[in-house]
Amino acid sequence: MDERSLVLVFVINILMLVVAAQQINNDYVVLKSLKDVWENLPPSWDGTNPCQENWEGVGCTNSRVTSITLASMNLTGTLSGDIPVLSELLYLDLSYNKGLTGTLLPSIGNFKKLTNLILVGCGFSGIIPDAIGSLPSLRILSLNSNAFSGQIPPSIGKLSNLYWLDLSDNQLHGSIPVSTRTAPGLDMLFNTKHFHFGKNKLSGEVPAKLFENNQLTGNIPSTIGLVQSLEILRLDRNLFSGSVPPNLNNLTRVNELYLSNNKLSGPLPDLAGMNFLFYVDMSNNTFDVSDFPLQLTTLRSLTTIVMENTNIQGEVPLELFSIPQLQTVILRNNHLNGTIDVGSSFSNQLQLVDLQNNNISAPVQRAGDKSEIILIGNPYCESGGTEKYCTLPQQSNSSSYSTKTNNCVPALCSSDQRSSPNCICAYPYQGHLYFKAPSFSNLEDPSIYTSLQLSMMSFFQSTRLPVDSVSLSNPTKNLDDYLVITLEVFPLGQDRFNRTGISSIGFVFSNQTFKPNKTVYGTYYFNADNYGVFSSDAINRTSKSSSSGIAIGAAAGGSVLVLLLLLAGIYAFRQKKRAKRATQLSNPFGSWDSNSSSTGGPQLKGARCFSYEDLKKSTNNFSEANAIGSGGYGKVYRGSLPGGLLVAIKRADQQSMQGGHEFKTEIELLSRVHHKNVVSLMGFCFEQGEQMLVYEYIANGTLKESLSGKSGIRLDWNRRLRVALGAAKGLQYLHDLANPPIIHRDIKSNNILLDERLNAKVADFGLSKPMANRSRGHVTTQVKGTMGYLDPEYYMTQKLTEKSDVYSFGVVMLELITARRPIENGKYIVREVMLAMDKTKYMYNLQAILDPAFDLTMTPKGLEKFVDLAFSCVDETGEQRPAMSEVVKEIENIMLSAGFDPKADLASSSSEYKGSSMGYEHPYSDKSLFMLSATQIYQPPKVEPK
């Protein structure tokens, strides 16, 4: 390239930078206009560069404003017409600012990159502009709990990427718009899974092209069965008439179905195949007289059945009460007869069976039954039945429940502060959670709220928000039959939140990022109180006048060319200097141990050296309150680093500490391990006589806990396959791609952790061995492992190979399908599955040994191939076992044959799969399974498969 071309390229680059600088300046001008119309903005909104000066609530990418999240800031004013000039904006959340009023201007349609528009609980009014349909990237549109009026804009139908649409609790009227030959409509929203229109004034018929507490009339159109992306369908409390379309059961993804309080007639709808349905309410309609619908007994995810006054007759089938998650059954005011058998098949979760005003003659009682069974108004009670079933239980629509303290005495606080569950005085962020479809009936059950509290705290910790504790209190049922709970969120490390903390927590709820277990609580929304006691840690800068800001902007635009020419001249020098500095920082450890012969710090990739004081402070002086596990190595503590990042700190006791050289070698090995399915080493500490390893903190515990029910996470067949695939990929990485290759030596369900998205991560490398000489094929070493998972060939020969991990993984695969421990009541899982298995029969005749949580009315597709793969992994001869790369490929093939996408990200958040948990064992604890050394006898039984 000649000199003239170089000059041309240089000039073009300079002009591009000038344009970019002007765009950055435009972002400042827009935010400056917001300052002119809004009050109570954060004090940090000062200066001339929102990105470099860290204006609170403003997020930037490459010096362009990409998010404004100012939930619960007590803002007042109107939405400036200039705000759509922020052309790179992705997120706009102004929720819970009741002082924000006025209308949405048509210029809102200029946000071409906006993905989330969230204005929950503000004071906006007027019509929703038609320009709202000009936001092609929009995925979440939440305008609920405002005062919007007029009709729903038909243009919303053009938002082809929309996932969540919430227009509830406004003053909208008219009919639901549908498309015509010349205009769009909501029937075009094929990817939208959540429609919320309740508590408006909508009227008219539901159009044939296509909702709760409106005045919709006419028939439910048959085309509703075509909207197969729906997850929630609420048509209750309207004026619908006629028959329910027979293709309603095409909506196989629906979780909640409400048809109650209408004028529906004809046969009861057939819900067969709606296998994700957990809440169904068809009460108070005029359906034809019919027997109890047996297809309900096949829906194994059901938690709540409400069929009051639906003209059903005959006996209630025993199978109904064996649905594993069933909690509430309300069948009052029908024509049911016979007896109610509440025998041994009763679900352990069942809380209420309300059969008032039927023709039940007698119940068959089960000793120790804890469920409330109400038979008032039946012949059984009229002829002098047991008082237990013939007296209305003491139930109310409220509870005095309040979160208990964490083994401490509540602090005496000033009148405007509250004592947290950790007995610290602070100003909490408060509000009310509204759950629309709770599955439980007993508001006095504390385990329900404890589970919610633990789930919420786990989420806050995993997302590194500055939350010390949360308190739930005063659960009540309102007139809409919503569960309303008072929520208090307490700050971490200080007595009040700053604005960033409040807006981040508000965004968690307004954006539905936190997802409690919907099979227990149903969908929800949050209504926050004002928070007016922000901490004063924000820097108060000297305000500048509007004219000064504009003058600075103009001057910047004119002088940027000169500045860039100067910068270009020194660019090469600075790059050289930066490269030199980067080289110096690539090994940031100036010393290792002054008393050791080891030279220099370890050669690390991605891990950092923590000081003893850093980790001591992060764990509150290694307090017992922060201890989350223990083992042969020592104790594990939860720590919170500056900025709120949670870590797990493994601290060796004096008896298990290695020499300095060995500890250095182990860290160098682990620091090379970087894979999404392997728990990451974040750093270490080696000073003051301490050896500590710092790992990433994994929120959702171990696979063992999920299979046992302790974590409350429900794993269906798809998710179990996905967990198996993730763990297999982690092992494959260790065997084939790590340098040097690593044999884990302790694969078990307690060492497979699940993150917030239910991704599996292989953990705990305390027994791992590197394959320094791969050509040798094995490592001769003392036998170590965990009983039930240990490779018998390794035990007999003391020769460790990658196939020893494959054997252990095969045992984990059998755990995944049976939810049984490897050794349980003296029985070995490999032997038990072999004895039960008959390949000539359906599902290999394994129905009796499979996890009861499986829906056995539908064959888990690929189960037989999965079992075959598991037994190839636990073959007695290592050479006959597949490599982990082959295991990964086979699981992927099983998923594809079952109709599952191995590359799909199934969960947006694990909390939506969580259930009520009665206890929780932390993922870094290994108390439940003990380590086995060569001095112990272990001989797995030899059983020939059928």
From TrEMBL:
Pfam family, one: LRR_1
Domain Protein kinase: 622-896
List of residues binding ATP: K650
Compartments reported by the entry: Membrane
Catalytic activity, EC: 2.7.11.1
Record key words, sorted: ATP-binding, Glycoprotein, Kinase, Leucine-rich repeat, Membrane, Nucleotide-binding, Receptor, Repeat, Serine/threonine-protein kinase, Signal, Transferase, Transmembrane, Transmembrane helix
GO CC term, one of those recorded: membrane
InterPro entries the record matches: Kinase-like_dom_sf (IPR011009), Leu-rich_rpt (IPR001611), LRR_dom_sf (IPR032675), Prot_kinase_dom (IPR000719), Protein_kinase_ATP_BS (IPR017441), Ser-Thr/Tyr_kinase_cat_dom (IPR001245), Ser/Thr_kinase_AS (IPR008271)
Protein name in UniProt: non-specific serine/threonine protein kinase
